[in-house]
Design a protein that fits this description.
The protein contains eight helices and eight strands, in the order βββαβαββαββααααα. It is an alpha+beta fold. Strand 2 (22-26) and strand 3 (31-35) form a beta hairpin.
Length: 304
């Protein structure tokens, strides 16, 4: 089961993402990224974080530890921004925490990265299974860590809040039909690394059993599953996730992504974007060097 912690100090909002997660310290002396129930993305995003994050972990991919975090808005009363205050006030109670990786960096198109096609294939396969629309070149939700010390930097998966798109349409009579729906990989963050999705499919599809999915959905707190129209309580809703994902795993031949863009297409797209960005710069800005799109030359220096 996911561990439970209590937030004791709100450190700062993380504004690079759309949901404005917060960095907090908890009563176990750990530091966590908190995804709030009161964010615009709502409770379903947290359900997706648990289901997909824990599934990824069971399939052997790297995901920082997830915890259930009790949060009292009084802990962040010093936060000066009104919109953050509103978010914290809406989020009293149980929220999702992810172990904070100190010094980790987001993967961007400029990150110099050597990704093994086998690992890339497994990540793309997971994203295709769970219909994750938020692992794109410009919003990778992948981090590189550690960025210092003796260990090799590794890829870590974060932010699965935009996966499981089907759970926004439970009311559709044909929701199960979408279990065979193809997954659009054209803008996937790892498309350029030659993902070996066939190998991933052979290894991972048999592991996604109903038993495994039942264990994983049991980790989602009842409070995030209550009141879904058309379902008689959290357990019935859990069963719907199990049925859908098991059906999709069985149907992998129908959605297995293979049409990755070629290297030349990727280079042409990057070139087109760079030209569009340059053209959009106002004249006065053209006099100063364009540092955007180049790797940040400064060393990482945000340690909590
Ligand atoms: N576990 C973590 N360790 C370190 N930084 C993180 C972690 N999780 C998220 N971040 C940072 O916060 C940003 C926003 O988090 P994310 O989970 O992607 O939220 P959102 O749902 O708002 O996109 C990430 O892009 C990353 O820079
Ligand atoms: Mg994100």
């Amino acid at each position: 089961m996911l561990r439970e912690v209590t937030a004791v100090r709100y450190l700062e909002p993380l504004r690079t993402g759309g949901s404005v997660p917060g960095v907090v310290e908890a009563d176990d002396l750990g530091t966590y990224v908190l995804k709030f129930t009161g964010s615009a993305q709502g409770r379903k995003a947290l359900v997706a974080e648990v289901v997909v994050g824990e599934l990824a972990r069971r399939l052997g991919l790297r995901v920082p530890e997830l915890v259930l975090a009790h949060f009292d808005p009084a802990v962040g009363a010093h936060e000066p921004h009104q919109e953050v205050q509103d978010l914290l006030r809406r989020s009293a109670g149980l929220n999702l925490g992810m172990d904070y990786l100190p010094g980790a960096r987001d993967v961007t198109p400029d990150t110099e990265l050597d990704v093994d096609p086998v690992e890339a294939g497994e990540i793309v396969w997971l994203d295709a299974l769970t219909a994750n629309v938020d692992r794109t070149v410009h919003s990778s939700n992948l981090m590189v860590w550690p960025t210092f010390g003796v260990h090799e930097p590794k890829l870590w998966l974060i932010d699965h809040g935009a996966a499981l798109v089907f759970h926004h349409r439970w009311d559709a009579a044909s929701v199960l039909d979408t279990a065979e729906k193809a997954y659009d990989v054209r803008h996937h963050a790892l498309g350029r690394y030659g993902p070996d999705v066939r190998r991933a499919d052979a290894k991972l599809a048999p592991l996604v059993t109903e038993d495994l999915l039942r264990e994983i959905t049991a980790e989602v707190p009842d409070a995030w599953l209550a009141d879904e129209p058309g379902f008689d309580g959290p357990d019935e809703l859990r069963a719907a996730y199990v049925t859908y994902l098991a059906a999709r795993a069985r149907a992998s031949a129908a959605w297995l992504p293979t049409d990755f863009p070629s290297r030349a297409e990727l280079d042409a797209e990057a070139e087109r974007r760079a030209r569009a960005t340059e053209a959009a710069r106002p004249a006065w800005l053209k006099r100063v060097p364009n540092l955007h799109g180049k790797p940040d030359p400064r060393p990482a220096k945000r340690y909590p």
